[in-house]
Fold this protein.
Amino acid sequence: MRGVVFLGNRRVELREFPDPEPGPGEVVVRIGAAGLCGSDLHAYRGERAQTHISGHEPCGTIAALGAGVTGWRAGERVIVHHYAGCGQCKYCRIGYDQLCLHGHRTFGFGAHGANADFLLVPARCLVRLPDALSFAEGAAIACGTGTAYMALTKLGVSGRDTLAIYGQGPVGLSATLLGKAMGARVIAVEVAEPRRALARELGADVVLDPQSEDPVAAIRELTGGGGGGGNPRLHRPSGRAGAGGAECTGVRPSLLRGGRRDGDPGAEPGYHPPPPDPLRVLDFPQRGLGRMRAVDRRAGHSPGSPGHAPLPPGGGRGGLPDV
């Protein structure tokens, strides 16, 4: 089979590799589409040559099944979760292989990835792809769009919320699209005009350029001056566009690495546990979908509660209509 290898310094090479054969509990996926993530670009632009096949956003059909694989059949359309742990520890047993206490493989980073004709993976890494979705859409869901979905699901976003999304790259735009579908009022913050245009097209109620106006002041105005009291949620996939985002929410953020708690085996240096009430900070032990920064509203601040500042009629600025 063919596979794409990153040689460093923006060079790639198409190489020949042996066709994979599934062992017990494994499947071979025929790749229908594979996405390109910002994480891939680090390896592509870096100086070190890779020896493995690149790509960690796989989607395709099952080509072969190994011994003992049940619940799947050849030809089924699937998305691949791009981490594989031991399969036995407490994190692997609930689907968080990326937190495996005994280490994990990451397809496309140290293990052969999706930029190839075929990919060999444990059967437990498969997620069914509905017929209504294309392979390209499935590849997006495998990483970036899935990251945004998990973040908003963890936050419990609904029509009562104002969602400020800092950065409108692939993950941020996915959050804009999904946030609107969940009923939230969405404020998108982005420095690049083409991405601001996409945010408008995908339904953002207000789009801010942090290079021409202060997003903190703008969001406070849009939330009736309450800032952190206006039940806002922060989703910050881009550090460059996200400067000042935590300030406008009125909630102290915490970068939670991989969702582990102090005292857990393998907890990363520098991890700090969430602060106690009255501030509640959500972590994101996602299903293989990277690290996120996100904060919830102040504990107990729900619509109608003391300290909650609703959006002004019409949303202020004419940008956030009543719903």
